[in-house]
């Protein structure tokens, strides 16, 4: 297994089609990340690869470029299948592939996940799809009903394979793989490499080249600080840190769903723009929460590790761990969410009495003693983190042929709102979301609810 820090080449040095190079340039990237530098030459040769790398390493773009580089856009049969542990991650992966493919013409990427009616996915099959991205359970369901034809499938990707094993998808994955052509390219990506992954690798791709991107390569610009929780209630400790540090946004990780909900509720009661994200929430509530946080209308997200797995925030100021994670790999995943794309990141861990043993293990890994600091005392003038924007949900999406430009046009038609009042826009299959300034929200809602967009009436509400 190779483990190295290569000189990071330019994307233009790789054997990529011009259309993909144009997409990469348009996105503002020029140099590869370590995981891309190591894996893309192998992937573009068409060889199998097993990659161990942390969250935020650029692995999604690596396999997306590999898929798109050899795609036959004239054939709408499924040519690539990406399996993910959660719907949230599948949606993120699909969006990344669509973004890179936008200079290639009509590339159809279809998500197959639970939480949405199967009938809407069945209707999409009639139009064909080049790339399928889904969760094992829903993909296997469609396969068992003979709704999918894998005869032209040439690429299989298992993304976050360790999480799929943890969630009990091993049998589903094997059943799906058995239905794919034996002559295919395999790519397996995993943050950790437990025994189960080694066994899965032998089953799926025994001749793959193995790559490990060292942890230090992805968190060199992250500052870690450790605070003594002692007898302090965790919700109060988080509140004090947020008041003192005043981050633009923050993720707070908890080890239990109950604690995540409790801390989020207490922060909200104190005036913070905060929401919880965990497995006890309905799927639609989890979707809306993640959109609000990624759009900036929620500034603090209090989450469990599994629920936050599919959330990818490019710019995250602060990560707080309420007590240490169950294991060191999870701790590494948490702190790796900040300090992306070369930016500096801050990761704070609250250490309680029960964390002593895990703290000693972390000290061994860091090869340096951990200095516990007392909780800060914020200035009297410090105010809770609030947001100056709100996210609106619109009752129409891709199925209604809505595009971001249509929403912008609807909001600016009377010239009372400008582009400066409008933030991020996300168009999903059935819903669309647009973020606007709080001061413009009432007028934006009236524009959408009263007038038509593309000749149709839609309803909008503030989340």
TrEMBL record:
<dbReference type="InterPro" id="IPR000629">
    <property type="entry name" value="RNA-helicase_DEAD-box_CS"/>
</dbReference>
<dbReference type="InterPro" id="IPR044742">
    <property type="entry name" value="DEAD/DEAH_RhlB"/>
</dbReference>
<dbReference type="InterPro" id="IPR012677">
    <property type="entry name" value="Nucleotide-bd_a/b_plait_sf"/>
</dbReference>
<dbReference type="InterPro" id="IPR050079">
    <property type="entry name" value="DEAD_box_RNA_helicase"/>
</dbReference>
<dbReference type="InterPro" id="IPR014001">
    <property type="entry name" value="Helicase_ATP-bd"/>
</dbReference>
<dbReference type="GO" id="GO:0003724">
    <property type="term" value="F:RNA helicase activity"/>
</dbReference>
<protein>
    <submittedName>
        <fullName>ATP-dependent RNA helicase DbpA</fullName>
    </submittedName>
</protein>
<keyword id="KW-0347">Helicase</keyword>
<comment type="similarity">
    <text>Belongs to the DEAD box helicase family.</text>
</comment>
<dbReference type="Pfam" id="PF03880">
    <property type="entry name" value="DbpA"/>
</dbReference>
<dbReference type="InterPro" id="IPR005580">
    <property type="entry name" value="DbpA/CsdA_RNA-bd_dom"/>
</dbReference>
<feature type="domain" description="Helicase ATP-binding">
    <location>
        <begin position="40"/>
        <end position="211"/>
    </location>
</feature>
<keyword id="KW-0067">ATP-binding</keyword>
<dbReference type="Pfam" id="PF00270">
    <property type="entry name" value="DEAD"/>
</dbReference>
<keyword id="KW-0547">Nucleotide-binding</keyword>
<feature type="short sequence motif" description="Q motif">
    <location>
        <begin position="9"/>
        <end position="37"/>
    </location>
</feature>
<feature type="domain" description="DEAD-box RNA helicase Q">
    <location>
        <begin position="9"/>
        <end position="37"/>
    </location>
</feature>
<dbReference type="InterPro" id="IPR014014">
    <property type="entry name" value="RNA_helicase_DEAD_Q_motif"/>
</dbReference>
<feature type="domain" description="Helicase C-terminal">
    <location>
        <begin position="237"/>
        <end position="383"/>
    </location>
</feature>
<dbReference type="InterPro" id="IPR001650">
    <property type="entry name" value="Helicase_C-like"/>
</dbReference>
<keyword id="KW-0378">Hydrolase</keyword>
<dbReference type="InterPro" id="IPR027417">
    <property type="entry name" value="P-loop_NTPase"/>
</dbReference>
<dbReference type="GO" id="GO:0005524">
    <property type="term" value="F:ATP binding"/>
</dbReference>
<dbReference type="InterPro" id="IPR011545">
    <property type="entry name" value="DEAD/DEAH_box_helicase_dom"/>
</dbReference>
<dbReference type="GO" id="GO:0016787">
    <property type="term" value="F:hydrolase activity"/>
</dbReference>
<dbReference type="GO" id="GO:0005829">
    <property type="term" value="C:cytosol"/>
</dbReference>
<dbReference type="Pfam" id="PF00271">
    <property type="entry name" value="Helicase_C"/>
</dbReference>
<dbReference type="GO" id="GO:0003676">
    <property type="term" value="F:nucleic acid binding"/>
</dbReference>
């Amino acid at each position: 297994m190779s483990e190295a820090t290569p000189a990071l080449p330019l994307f233009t040095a790789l054997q990529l089609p011009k259309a993909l190079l144009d997409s990469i340039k348009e996105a503002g990237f020029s140099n590869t990340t370590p995981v891309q530098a190591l894996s893309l030459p192998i992937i573009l040769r068409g060889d199998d690869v097993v990659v161990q790398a942390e969250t935020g390493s650029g692995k999604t773009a690596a396999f997306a470029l590999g898929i798109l580089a050899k795609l036959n856009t004239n054939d709408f049969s499924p040519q690539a299948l990406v399996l993910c542990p959660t719907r949230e991650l599948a949606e993120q992966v699909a969006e990344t592939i669509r973004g890179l493919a936008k200079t290639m013409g009509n590339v159809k990427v279809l998500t197959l996940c639970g939480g949405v009616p199967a009938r809407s996915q069945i209707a999409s099959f009639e139009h064909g799809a080049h790339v399928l991205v889904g969760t094992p359970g829903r993909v296997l369901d469609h396969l068992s009903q003979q709704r999918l034809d894998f005869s032209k499938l040439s690429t299989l990707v298992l993304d976050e394979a360790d999480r799929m094993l943890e969630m009990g998808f091993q049998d589903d994955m094997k059943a799906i793989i058995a239905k794919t052509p034996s002559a295919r390219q395999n790519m397996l990506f995993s943050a950790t490499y437990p025994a189960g992954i080694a066994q899965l690798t032998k089953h799926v791709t025994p001749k793959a080249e193995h790559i490990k991107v060292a942890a230090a390569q992805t968190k060199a610009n992250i500052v870690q600080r450790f605070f003594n929780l002692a007898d302090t209630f965790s919700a109060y400790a988080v509140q004090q840190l947020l008041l003192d540090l005043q981050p633009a946004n923050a993720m707070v990780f908890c080890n239990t769903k109950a604690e995540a909900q409790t801390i989020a509720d207490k922060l909200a009661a104190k005036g913070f723009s905060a929401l919880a994200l965990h497995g006890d929430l309905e799927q639609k509530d989890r979707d809306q929460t993640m959109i609000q946080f990624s759009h900036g209308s929620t500034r603090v997200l209090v989450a469990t590790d599994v629920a936050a797995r599919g959330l990818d925030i490019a710019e995250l100021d602060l990560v707080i761990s309420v007590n240490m994670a169950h294991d060191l790999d999870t701790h590494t995943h948490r702190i790796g969410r900040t300090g992306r794309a070369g930016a500096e990141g801050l990761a704070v861990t609250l250490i309680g009495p029960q964390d002593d043993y895990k703290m000693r293990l972390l000290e061994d890994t860091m090869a340096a003693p951990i200095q516990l600091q007392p909780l800060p005392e914020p200035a009297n003038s410090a105010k809770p983190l609030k947001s100056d924007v709100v996210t609106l949900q619109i009752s129409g999406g891709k199925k209604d042929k809505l595009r971001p430009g249509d929403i912008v046009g609807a909001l600016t038609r009377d010239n009372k709102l400008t582009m400066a009042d409008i933030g991020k826009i996300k168009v999903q299959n059935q819903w669309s979301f647009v973020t606007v300034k709080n001061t413009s929200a009432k007028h934006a809602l009236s524009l959408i609810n009263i007038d038509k967009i593309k000749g149709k009436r839609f309803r909008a509400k503030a989340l």
